[in-house]
Amino acid sequence: MAQSAPHPAPLAEFPRLTRRFTQEHVNAYGALNEDRNLIHYDAEFARQAGFSAPLVHGAMVAALLGDACRDYFGAGWAAGGTLSVKFIRPVLVGQAVTTGGRPHPEADAAAGRFLRLEVWCRNEAGEDVLVGEAGGVPAA
Amino acid sequence: MEELTFDQVQVGQTLGPVAHEVTRDFVRRFAEATGDRHPEYLTEAPVAHPLLATLFSTRLMGRVGIDRPSGGIHAAQAYAFLAPLRAGQTVTTTGRVTAKFIRRDRKYVEFEALTVDAAGQPIVRCTVTSILGR
Known about the structure:
The complex is a heterodimer.
Chain A: E1 18-20, H1 23-33, H2 43-48, H3 58-73, E2 82-87, E3 96-103, E4 115-123, E5 128-136
Antiparallel strand pairs in A: 1-3, 2-5, 3-4, 4-5
Chain B: E1 14-22, H1 24-34, H2 53-63, E2 73-81, E3 89-103, E4 106-116, E5 122-131
Antiparallel strand pairs in B: 1-3, 2-5, 3-4, 4-5
């Protein structure tokens, strides 16, 4: 599994972080968020719902994007940053996802140093699994 | 906890308050579960991953019986991070159901939540849209 490492901020480009979530990750996350939805833990339940493996909690994928935002914007992102995401496709246990981002096309110059980005996570097939916007003030 | 169906969820329904103790172990377990072992999450006095706040909203829904029927999924989430969350804090989350609607035969519930610290200072504000399983 790729690990996030501390970076000087801001980075020239949005970090591309790749992570492959295991069933152990999903179980550990479920113990924290108290979500007992079987679609995350029971392979047979997931199969009957049309998936070849249990689903990763969507918020785990959003957290990966949050890691990239923290690396990009710096520690200050935790006090003034924003993140909004839409879950486009499920991520199955065992699949790898990778973050990406670029300046938002509708970025407002009047926003000053507050920077808006288009952000996403994609699966190994290059398909969007999560898309959204992030905002923050890059560290000086 | 009895699970609420889509028909039982009421727009305007309040959720919580639910208190969360953000311990060092909690911060560390979140880092382990999400696979992000950034050094700042693993110190003796760690700052929490900002997205740890997603747990508060999920727990809030779960504690009142929303979002528990198996088969439900999250459709969208939006967060405004207002102050760093640190181990040792006890925070409180309250929320409100803001909308419910059916689109393409899917049952959506939207709610907003605010998490504050012990002094009432806001930590994170969020909006969550979920598709209920029944």
